């Protein structure tokens, strides 16, 4: 995920093609800081002051941090609020295909990605205000998002952190309406610490004095750190398993808190882990001072939320022509051991209901715990193909990743490209299969872009 306080490279090598004004601006902004990661709030505060502190003029903010589930919680919450008639601005990262996805502005019918002309305008103004000073890509684009949010009407801002929380470029909001901490696990150890307690401390850095903190189910170690931080700030904690709970019962999602019990439809987003994410969004919606989100709006929100590349089954598109007839294609951008666990569990549950051979296509960054991710898939895929991630020099080579997968008990072999991986799958298939592409949001973005392309003769 794109991380606060450091430069995030384009989603893939074709993202910044210099074909539009925003592409050229984004390319220049990539060069303003020599380090890829440099967590700090000083630079973004300096730039925001030069812009007139737009972050102090935006609508009330819900600030969301965590290791996994941030984007899904934001997607659910956005859909619930919009079903209630509220207008929401949304900031998420990274993007999958185009940068515009990161900044969504409130619009009739729901928030939409910022337009090309509007993005080029706010980027140009932030670049001018920065006066060539060192600043990371994430920091300057976060400032641009605040500028857009301050100048366009909305009722609420849903603000997702990048990396961590305490020194995240989004953590300049002094008085959020609420903070949210999704599931915390091991990831980005080089920057956040190599144990759960240290990582939880960084994530809990978004908590603010007196402001409610809605907390997903956590390990005991993470919850202890969060509770201590919240107590020091006198921030009310609304935690899963204590203040609220959520579970599946007879094909329904049941949410219960201290006030009531809601009998809801199952979420649109697939997988048992999405029950917890939906529950976190419901708990948040029910604890936003000044906002009323009805049970009907909650039900509509969890059944209409969209969050691409999170166990997403692809609809019609180019890649189906590469797969055996009648096959399913699924894509997920999860890239840490906790994500591997929930994806593998979801696939196993799906296999129990609708049996179909699973073929796994995986690409990962070399900064990730590939073995920890892949070991959860033992016994699931009939075939595993590993691929390079085009344009990412920090990605595992396909043969390196295949060797790791084999050590984790998977029958893996490298493929020279995504197309070659599909060809291996076709050659091995004896009928319709379930192709699952996973391991990286970079790869997921390239898959979605390829799926949307017209087939070439």
From TrEMBL:
Where in this chain does the record put each Mur ligase C-terminal domain?
Answer: 317-440
Q: Which cofactor does it need?
A: Mg(2+)
Residue intervals of the Mur ligase central domain: 64-285
What Pfam family is a match for this entry? Mur_ligase_C
Q: Which reaction is catalysed here? A: 10-formyltetrahydrofolyl-(gamma-L-Glu)(n) + L-glutamate + ATP = 10-formyltetrahydrofolyl-(gamma-L-Glu)(n+1) + ADP + phosphate + H(+); 7,8-dihydropteroate + L-glutamate + ATP = 7,8-dihydrofolate + ADP + phosphate + H(+); (6S)-5,6,7,8-tetrahydrofolyl-(gamma-L-Glu)(n) + L-glutamate + ATP = (6S)-5,6,7,8-tetrahydrofolyl-(gamma-L-Glu)(n+1) + ADP + phosphate + H(+); (6R)-5,10-methylenetetrahydrofolyl-(gamma-L-Glu)(n) + L-glutamate + ATP = (6R)-5,10-methylenetetrahydrofolyl-(gamma-L-Glu)(n+1) + ADP + phosphate + H(+)
Annotated metabolic or biological route of this protein: Cofactor biosynthesis; tetrahydrofolate biosynthesis; 7,8-dihydrofolate from 2-amino-4-hydroxy-6-hydroxymethyl-7,8-dihydropteridine diphosphate and 4-aminobenzoate: step 2/2; Cofactor biosynthesis; tetrahydrofolylpolyglutamate biosynthesis
Which controlled-vocabulary keywords does the entry list?
Answer: ATP-binding, Folate biosynthesis, Ligase, Magnesium, Metal-binding, Nucleotide-binding
**UniProt function note:** Functions in two distinct reactions of the de novo folate biosynthetic pathway. Catalyzes the addition of a glutamate residue to dihydropteroate (7,8-dihydropteroate or H2Pte) to form dihydrofolate (7,8-dihydrofolate monoglutamate or H2Pte-Glu). Also catalyzes successive additions of L-glutamate to tetrahydrofolate or 10-formyltetrahydrofolate or 5,10-methylenetetrahydrofolate, leading to folylpolyglutamate derivatives.
Give the region (Disordered) as residue ranges. Answer: 1-21
Q: What class of enzyme is it?
A: ligase
Read off the PANTHER family from this record.
Answer: DIHYDROFOLATE SYNTHETASE-RELATED, FOLYLPOLYGLUTAMATE SYNTHASE-RELATED
A Gene Ontology annotation in the biological process aspect, one of them, is: folic acid biosynthetic process
Its cellular-component GO annotations read: cytoplasm
Q: This protein's superkingdom? A: Bacteria
Gene Ontology MF term list: ATP binding; dihydrofolate synthase activity; metal ion binding; tetrahydrofolylpolyglutamate synthase activity
Q: Does the keyword Magnesium apply?
A: yes
Q: Does the keyword Ligase apply?
A: yes
Q: What family classification does the UniProt entry report for this protein?
A: Belongs to the folylpolyglutamate synthase family.
The protein's name is Dihydrofolate synthase/folylpolyglutamate synthase
User: By its UniProt entry, which InterPro entries does this protein fall under?
Assistant: Folylpolyglutamate_synth, Folylpolyglutamate_synth_CS, Mur-like_cat_sf, Mur_ligase_C, Mur_ligase_C_dom_sf, Mur_ligase_cen
Its EC number is: 6.3.2.12, 6.3.2.17
